[in-house]
Amino acid sequence: MTVRVDKDGGVTVITLARPDVRNAVDSEHARALYDAFLAFDADASARVAVFHGAHGHFCAGWDLQFGAKMLSEPPADGKGLWSDLEFQAGDDKPLGPMGPSRLLLSKPVIAAVSGAAVAGGMELALWCDMRVMEEDAYFGVYCRRFGVPLIDGGTVRLPRLIGMGHAMDLILTGRKVEAAEALQMGLCNRVVPSGQALAAALELAQQLCCFPQKTMLADRLSAYTQWDMDLPHALHQEWERGKGCIVEGLQGAMRFAAGHGRHGEFND
Known about the structure:
The chain has helices spanning 27-42, 64-72, 120-127, 154-162, 164-173, 179-185, 197-209, 213-225, 231-243, 246-257; strands spanning 3-8, 11-16, 48-53, 109-113, 116-118, 130-134, 138-140, 177-178, 190-192. It is α/β, with parallel strands linked by helices.
């Protein structure tokens, strides 16, 4: 299977496996990734997803060979090439060219990045909540050299994640960004030895599974949805989400007072 879904307790592992094209994505596999992440989000037993690419690469972006075929063989129904990808800002579950890139899920996703995470593959990694990167992996807006635009959130998420200066450097030049620099600029969260990204991401996912979920998810969503708000409204929405978790917080305080959860130990 080119998009595989496995479960380990509360962790869902979604694997992209197209080794002949370094896990590049065409419309079929974009839809498969989209469906897999929506299913994860709807699964009440799933808490965290880990997204990775098999066979040594995360994702080389949009499948340009498939794109060339689309141009040479236009749709028989006369519709535009991207007609199924058009969306309005209010769309509930919009499909992106790379699949899930326009979704705001209710639960976290961790990218385990090995090898190439470039062009649309980099955009998929940026879509994830956190990125664990192998020391010989790399990012890059490689689509710059072919005139392919960033339409899976790259121009939005990069400036928000690493600041406008770093973002413009990457967007305008399309240069390669290796793991050490990615960590320094905040483009990834962890750097691990080659071959260890998936194991490290799974360990991190299990840690997140152990936290009180209602509070963690409320805080996560408040952080995502505050971008277009002024400060008073952002603080108000934080309070509105947080007040529903106060009972969970008081229960945690009782556990702490009883001696639990200290010295780095976490229990749901």
